[in-house]
Protein: NtEIG-E80 protein
Organism: Solanum commersonii
Amino acid sequence: MTYIMRSSFILFFVSTLFLQGTLGSFICEELPTNVCGFAIATSAKRCLLENSSGNDGKVEYQCKTSEVVVANMREHIETDECVDACGVDRNSVGISSDALLDSQFTSKLCSLACYHHCANIIDLYFNLAAGEGVYLPDLCNKQRTNPHRAMAELSSNGGPIEGAADAPAPSPVSF
């Protein structure tokens, strides 16, 4: 009986190695630049679009792997529906918390279509907002109830709206 279990385990292990080799890994550097933004590799690291000047002076774009690890998400390319719903640009180089000061952007980010269905983008902006001392769920609540007040509070001191910046990211469906 033990021999059969060991043989089954070894066969299962070899099969998973073969399957992984066949399917390959999701590597940022192998992605086309038009899907790089808001993608997550097999390693759970975010992909980012970088630019550089080529020998001929033209700007060249490359997809690179960042050091930012996304919890509970791997091998993910954000859908065009989420990119549109959240008001983000897949082809932009870099990301800034300044976007949170734009009421039109924040309105799209906090919309139900984005906040409830686009966990990758919400996770990214949740962490970006937290770095600025802003708790994204509170900002979104205020954005939905009183957008002018939310923007005024955010821009008046650049400080927190409410909540803790080190709080765990919300589940997009719990909001």
